[in-house]
## 1
Amino acid sequence: MYAAFRSIGAYVPEKILTNEDLSHMVDTTDAWITKRTGIKERRIAAADETTSDMGVKACEKAIERSGISKKEIDMIICATISPDYFCMPSTATVIATKLGLSAITAFDVSAACTGFVYILSIAKAFIESGMKKNVLIVGAEKLSAITDYTDRGTCILFGDGAGAALISATPHQNEAIIDVHTGADGAYADLLMTPNGGSGSAHDALDREAAGCYMKMKGNETFKVAVRTLTSDVVSILNENMIEASAIDHFIPHQANYRIIKAVGDALNMQDEQVVLTVAKYGNTSGASIPMAMNEIYEAGTLRSGELMLLDAFGGGLTWGSALLPFAPQS
Ligand code: ACO
């Protein structure tokens, strides 16, 4: 059996936080944010809207578009660094219950912005081994809940949203996810982390800033490792599979920073029309960013059956990954 990427769905909250809004909150300007990141605005979830609420909406669309009935789903994996609950239950189990799915395998994966590529690789492995048939994967983030809105180095980057996909078993090799790379190097963990709040430190739930529960990032160092690692990883996944960059219909990178996307795209000689960009509209939504970007081209009618996608992502851990796959909706 092979694993086929059947459908995509996404959800974004209504509230828009613009660069202009942020310039009244911290010492920054629209011009600086636009030039250094390409971001113009991002979405912010309502106070009572959780990561699982957004995940459910994305999953419902992915299920509806898959042609697969809910009761056929046998596993759900959620990529998130902003789960509904600190330790348990996992956001995947909350999403499963809200979808009316019970007695299925459900768990979260913590790989920051690379989360969606990681859960894609897990879905592929479970399906190819014959252990599961229809795996729902969802990247969902309420990053506004772990962002320090007094830190101009991070608060300008992040937004909220969710994206989901259904991955199913197929006997047809032409529908198969071709390859997925995943990697990590904990030696760089301190470049991007939420320093406290875990078992390694005292946890003061009443004062999240004092407890160090917000994201901290050494942006410039992270930027350099991201460009270097992503470029070498996408070059190797293309070479190993003997696929030319010119054969890629849609290059769908993690939407962290336009300059990172441009540097990797240029290294591959990608043409503008191959590169999917949503960073200006949604900012960095971590594990949700790739499926949200994929959903944009699906809803625009430009993602068609059989077209080849190249995904790449980089994030806290540090983690990275890439994937080569055709879009394979059920005919
Ligand atoms: N507005 C105005 N000035 C600012 C801002 C801001 N929002 N933020 C920083 N600056 C200042 C700095 O203080 C510094 O000033 P100085 O020269 O006087 O010291 C100057 O701008 C340059 O700062 P850098 O950090 O060198 O700026 P850089 O060009 O690197 O851009 C950014 C910063 C946008 C954060 C970039 O480094 C970046 O995108 N990094 C990678 C992010 C990423 O990919 N993370 C991984 C995924 S996220 C995840 O996993 C959750």
## 2
Amino acid sequence: MEGPKAILLIGDGLGDRPVPELGFRTPLEAAEKPNMDRLAAEGECGIMDPIAPGVRAGSDTSHLALLGYDPYQCYTGRGPFEAAGIGMDVKRGDIAFRCNFSTVNDGMVVTDRRAGRITERTDQLAASVNGLEIEDVTCLFKESVAHRGALVLRGPGLGADVTDTDPHVENSKVHRSEPTNPDDSASAKTARIVNEFVRRSYEILKDHPVNKARMAAGQNPANIILPRGAGLAPHLTALNERCNITSACVAETGLIKGVAKYVGMKIVDVPEATGGLDSDIMAMGRAVVKALEDHSFVLCNVKGADVGGHDAKPQAKVEVIQRMDVMVGYLIENVDESTYIVLTADHSTPVSVKDHSGDPVPIAFWGPGVRVDDCRHFDERSVTKGGLHRIRGIDVMNILTQLMTVQEKFGA
Ligand code: ZN
Ligand code: ZN
């Protein structure tokens, strides 16, 4: 494939704050990462607010922004992207939910939100409720990993502003879904359908052979499905069309794959990429180089740093960064001279916060023609000296596609 190409490499949750155990350095500052530093030294750097200054970004909203879609315009919940990520065909106007298989007693009290962390034969349970028709709405359901699944409601006049049926704690009754605004008749309809779906899921699943076998083996039955996190499936123009590129995505988590699939990217599966601290990051690097053979743009999300942040493990985060650095070295060695590499994060996950913070993240653009600046190191503080100064996630594709010379001119 001819013409400029680009890799957008995202270290999930890579950004951090000074960590006492690391001598008040951030994990990026503490890590040995000669290849990331090379991208910074030979590239143009800055800091980036994934959404806007101080806004704590989720991975889904951040990736939408990084791909050029304003999450404030298109995002009402993670349901549609989760559903797309497990291979469901989500259409504009659908209402999608994340779900758990759970265990309830006959008083509808949730005794186990994860149904004994069920891992087997959930496809059979899912098949028994998939396609239920309630009023004029079709209920599509598919299992995901372990006790998880997704529900998509398809039909006229549905709204997404409804409360969860999952009580989020055990020994509590299943909640009734309600519209958040009682005057919102579309969401009231959705709530009615969801409540009926939950009721029918119990009727169907309580005597399902899979659950009979589980009970006989002393395991909690997956006897109800509890939807939460409703989201309205937005209309998004395909990324390839918007940016004049052919795009692929190498990612570890269903949520990122879901966002990518939703905007029409080709999903490249890497079985060795587990999404954990032990993930085979080099296998992802090889998949990126391979995908560049027949795509002009590859997004790669490496999950590990976010895991280290959530788990409050600074050393684990440093190690993930160092392994990611080896992968960056492989990318540098294996791309041709017309290829751009953009290195950044989707948000900060400071080990002191154990969750996503609103701190900005470093970013470096590397490739032909970039205005090389004085920044020598890829970390949160060094890049503030860079020529990009402070940008937003939604700026990234504009900056990249004009470097790639595939962007249409705005005006005459
Ligand atoms: Zn993330
Ligand atoms: Zn996270």
